[in-house]
Specification:
40% of the residues lie in helices and 16% in strands. It is α/β, with parallel strands linked by helices and 393 residues long. Helix 1 packs antiparallel against helix 8 and helix 9 packs across helix 12. It has two domains: 242 residues, Type I PLP-dependent aspartate aminotransferase-like (Major domain) (Aspartate Aminotransferase, domain 2, 3-Layer(aba) Sandwich); 124 residues, Aspartate Aminotransferase, domain 1, CATH 3.90.1150. It starts with 8 loop residues before the first strand and ends in a 6-residue tail after the last helix. The chain has a seven-stranded mixed beta sheet with strand order 2-8-7-6-5-3-4, with helices on both faces. Strands 9-10-15-12 form a four-stranded antiparallel beta sheet, with helices on one face. Strands 1-11 form a two-stranded parallel sheet. The mean pLDDT is 95. It binds pyridoxal-5'-phosphate. The site of pyridoxal-5'-phosphate has 12 residues, from helix 3.
């Protein structure tokens, strides 16, 4: 390994999170001694099944849901596909999907494929966002039709952290008899939720975004919601998702949900304060830097900042020299630098979209981390600008 984890300043938690040590401890027995199949009739397997049910209860508690509404999957992407494809199969005569222009590829690519690749069997409305990344509710209401099978809108955006009013949107969908799915991958564990008080039919979450391992997720299916499984097989998950359970990771996810519930206040106070200090410090010390996304209506851990006239990739490389981990809003695809679809949808100017950096914090970040980043960033940007043909003092 080239990079010692002890020296890393990790501010890329919307990409993935550190597995909490308590989560590792909770998982270990199920990777060693307790290897029984939770579906087995014998006590040895049955006790594993009980542990899985306990984990289901922990997930349900964090979501404000009933344990029977929690279905374990392999990841957020699987949960997203399962919800959307289930709705389309449930209502084969309804061919319309409503989503936004700023969804994660897990929803975006699926909807693009449904729109384009299935001989235009399905029609997709891509809701616009305003300059601050928020939605226009009038456009949303007008988009719904008799033909709409499902609305899929993320609870919070992974790049900007902007939070969408999914509870209100689900209510509107319900009044018109339309199923509502939300990709809650970035929101769960960061903001409080009580799903039983909402009209949300489906919610996706992913373990590795909240200090559980990669490769485990959940699809919440509200009681009474019509559902057709994506993976057919054994009777696992009450016939809603075939395949022997990823037991250790499920146990880890249960523990992570307990920890998230306990740290929700910390996330919304201390982590938010750290994020704000970082953000204000960068915006005031680096000229021509600007915040992307609504200032208040945002996840407490996320800050997306554009440094004009420099490339995000170049910034990341320089940050990497100090072991500072973050993400850029542009992706280097096939030799061309394409700014992120989220920033483009918000109309962020070209010169700013290219130089955007997403900082995403977690409960493991400290004031020292923030101070270190604040110390290094101004010189990194200044040096890069000196080399930029577009930059004039
Ligand atoms: N949805 C959102 C908003 C995400 O940020 C991600 C991961 O980055 C996913 C879905 C996909 O989750 P997973 O990696 O578990 O498939």
């Amino acid at each position: 390994m080239q990079c010692n984890p002890d020296n890393v300043i990790y501010m890329d938690n919307n990409a993935t999170t550190r597995v909490a040590p308590e989560v590792v401890d909770a998982m270990m027995p199920f990777l060693t001694d307790y290897y029984g199949n939770p579906s087995s009739m014998h006590t040895f397997g049955g006790q594993v099944g009980q542990a899985v049910e306990q984990a289901r209860g922990s997930v349900a508690d964090l979501l404000g849901a009933d344990a029977s509404e929690v279905v374990f999957t392999s990841c957020g992407t699987e949960s997203d596909s399962t919800a959307i494809l289930s709705a389309l199969q449930t209502y084969p005569d309804k061919r319309h999907i409503v989503t936004t222009r700023v969804e994660h590829p897990a929803v975006k690519s699926l909807c693009e494929n449904l729109d384009n690749l299935t001989g235009h069997k399905h029609r997709v409305t891509w809701l616009k966002v305003k300059a601050d990344g928020t939605l226009d509710m009038e456009e949303y209401k007008a988009s719904l039709s008799e033909d709409t099978a499902i609305v899929s809108v993320m609870w919070a955006n992974n790049e900007t952290g902007v939070i969408f009013p999914v509870e209100e949107m689900a209510k509107i969908a319900k009044e018109r008899g339309i199923l509502f799915h939300t990709d809650g991958v970035q929101a769960v564990g960061k903001i409080p939720m009580n799903l039983q008080e909402t009209d949300i039919d489906f919610l996706s979450l992913s373990g590795h975004k909240l200090h559980a391992p990669k490769g485990v997720g959940v699809l919440y299916i509200a009681k009474g919601t019509p559902f057709i499984p994506f993976l057919n097989g054994g009777h696992q998950e009450h016939g809603r998702r075939g395949g022997t359970e990823n037991v250790a990771s499920i146990i880890g996810l249960g523990k992570a949900c307990d920890l998230a519930a306990a740290s929700l206040t910390d996330e919304n106070t201390r982590v938010r304060a750290l994020r704000d200090k970082l953000e204000q410090g960068l915006l005031s010390s680096v000229p021509k830097s600007l915040l992307n996304g609504h200032k208040e209506n945002r996840l407490p851990n996320t800050s997306n900042i554009s440094f004009e006239y420099v490339e995000g990739e170049a910034i990341l490389l320089h940050m990497n020299q100090y072991n500072i981990c973050a993400s850029s809003g542009s992706a280097c695809t096939s030799g061309s630098l394409e700014p992120s679809h989220v920033l483009r949808a918000m109309g962020v100017p070209f010169t700013a979209a290219h130089g955007s950096i997403r900082f995403s914090l977690s409960v493991y970040n400290t004031e020292e981390d923030v101070d270190f980043v604040l110390e290094k960033m101004p010189a990194i940007i200044e040096n890069l600008r000196k080399m930029s043909p577009f930059w004039e003092e």
